[in-house]
Write a structure and sequence with these properties.
about 260 residues
């Protein structure tokens, strides 16, 4: 089913804003997934909504990744194996997405975001200093472990993946926010591709909706990456905390509605 003109305009606006937000600070799924649930034809399976979202989001993430990689020195020695593990874990998560009740993820995510916000708020120097030394063996292990865990979450559910990845790089690997955001995009891109390797062959993509949304995400990703590079790590710290507030509000509201239903 093709979107009508009014739905298409809303879809393009949502995709542009989601791509911009996701590239700059993460959390684009916060806008895009609820919009798709509201706009797609009634009765569309949840896996098809997630698959359509992944196809579109991957274009914005790819654009942002290229922008960052051209201007930021990235820790490729850790990132490439972490991305490979995340790819495998995300594929497994996508396969489970069609069978598990995902509403159980929301309370756990809300608690995790509260802890992330508290940690960043009180440690004002966190993520501002540019790391010069190489990763230790222990830090390398943390990078691989969290790449796999967050990759699995991204394939299974998705919202907040970029924020989780960026927080891990900042908290456990002592990177600045701009490097952490750029590194998160590399892993996030591979998890999107992994999820699509399940969603596309299984028919969980509405192409008439996904393709225009992908174009909007691409444009938003280009703008968002440039904003992040222009603002630097101090800007990203405040933007990251604001994003966590929005995410916590959204998840809290969803949990309240689930309990009240």
């Amino acid at each position: 089913m093709m979107p009508v003109e009014s739905e298409l305009l809303l879809l393009l606006l949502t995709g542009l804003l989601a791509g911009l937000m996701d590239a700059a600070i993460g959390g684009g799924g916060l806008l895009q997934i609820p919009a798709l649930f509201g706009l797609l034809p009634a009765g569309t399976p949840a896996a098809t909504v997630l698959g359509t979202n992944k196809l579109a989001a991957s274009w914005g993430t790819a654009t942002a990744t290229l922008q960052f990689a051209r201007r930021i020195v990235l820790p490729w020695r850790m990132l490439l194996p972490a991305a490979a593990l995340a790819f495998a874990a995300a594929y497994l998560g996508a396969r489970l997405a069609a069978h598990l009740p995902l509403h159980y993820m929301k309370p756990a995510m809300l608690l995790l975001m509260l802890l992330m916000f508290w940690h960043i708020f009180w440690r004002k120097e966190l993520g501002l200093a540019v790391r010069q030394q190489a990763l230790t063996r222990r830090e390398y292990g943390w990078g691989l472990l969290f790449g796999a865990l967050i990759g699995f979450y991204d394939g299974l559910f998705g919202p907040g993946t970029g924020s989780l990845l960026a927080f891990v790089w900042v908290r456990f690997l002592a990177y600045d926010f701009i490097t952490a955001t750029a590194a998160a995009k590399v892993v996030n891109l591979t998890t999107n591709i992994a999820a699509l390797s399940f969603f596309i062959p299984s028919g969980h993509i509405l192409w008439a909706w996904a393709l225009p949304l992908a174009a909007a995400n691409l444009c938003g990703g280009l703008i968002g990456a440039r904003l992040a590079l222009w603002g630097g790590s101090r800007y990203l710290r405040y933007a990251f905390m604001l994003l966590l507030c929005v995410l916590m509000t959204r998840f809290g509201w969803d949990i309240y509605r689930d309990w009240a239903a």
